[in-house]
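Service request form, structural biology core

Requester: graduate student, group of Dr. S.
Request type: structure prediction, single chain
Budget code: on file
Notes: please return the result as structure tokens.

Sequence provided:
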Amino acid sequence: MLRVTRSTVIDAPIERVWEVLRDFNSHDRWHPAVARSHIEGGEPPDQVGCVRNFHLADGNHIREQLIALSDTDRISTYCILDATVPLQRYVATLQLKPVTDGDRTFWHWQSTFDTPPGREAELADMVGRAVYEAGFEALRRYLRSGGERRSRPAAAGAARGGDMTGQAVVLKAFGGADQLSFENVTVPPPGHREVRIRQSAAGVNYIDVYIAEGEYRMVEPPAAIGMEAAGTVIDVGSDVHDLLPGDSVAYAYGVPGAFATLRTLPSDQVVRVPAGIEAETAAAVLFKGLTAEYLVHRVHTVRAGETILVHAAAGGVGTFLCQWAKHLGARVIGTVSSEEKARIARENGCDLPIVSTDYRFAEAIKAATGGRGVDVVYDGLGRLAERENYDALAPTGHWVAYGHASGALPPLDPALQSAKSLRVSRPVLFHYTDEPARLRAMATNVFAMLERGVLKVTLRHRYPLSAAAFALQALQSRQTIGPLVLLA
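Core staff response, request fulfilled:
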């Protein structure tokens, strides 16, 4: 019995390499030795027991069966059923492992087989060089080139390498939603480490209001606005290895421009969306989910038994904060503006929703906590809630000021802060997501919570992209419950 073993390192993330290799019928798209291939009986190409029937470029014919597949360990094992090549009792296994010193993949490929007498060296060399080593290099080229797939073609109408015409919501001048217009725009092809996306949904966030009003000078009009969207990759630029045309993706990017049908942006700010999560759900979740993730895990680590205060507990971020903190074992108190929103907040993990339309809530919180107050307040209100937030906090509490819907929060008087030994944080999401590896880790956490049912999304507010101004006005006037999305 002969054993042939080869290993290599691929300069691409393990998820990207595994997605190609776990498809038992993918090799005719990237391996030069394979001319054509199909799965017999129309079975899925990742179904254990399926048979691939393929012809080699030299005219030989092989039938192989998938006998084991593990997404957890990223191992695939298969055997030859019959072949015109004299490889007898051939069993092969490929396994991927992440490289610890970078976003790369270690690929180990080995097989055992018998041969006719006298042909051992010839056939071992053929398997090692013409199959394994040639396959390593071919997959590298495939990923570098963008890996165009027959089963997932680029979006219709894509003119690879050229400009495309799309539509975008453009801020004509600072002043608010009234200054938005829906216009045709030219979208350039992706450059170095960029991707171009055909977007199908965009999420609406309060930061969009701040930008439109000019409070956050993140654009200079005229300019497209919007911070998060989801869609499908059309084409990729040079040195992009982890995304392919046809991939479902989303982003929450620190440069506005998401309210559009097409967009080109850096690939390292784009994350792949797991199968089964629709684009409009991804667009509704990512920005607000990332915000909740860094607030409960990175800015303040919520622990079981803590009592937290969440403002706008029936809103987009507020709902996710309630759900996630409750999952972590915290007691959740929230403020809302109506009895209907109190019901929604309670359904999403808020133990005690307080209805308040005048920024008065500290007395109710003190009563609910035996006079102690809360361990952390997640403050998205700002100036008008300043005194109430202070009064609601327990000694050694943490004031996390991540937004200011009622106006910018002034600097906290050091004497007041020391009187309760308070910690004060003023975090910005994009400081946490500017590092690609950390962004991917945060997004993975968000999507995992969504898939596990910890984060639940109810989309009550959908608008066409051209109605972005109306959506921002509805958000600002507190008429909405949960996430808002624009559909392209």
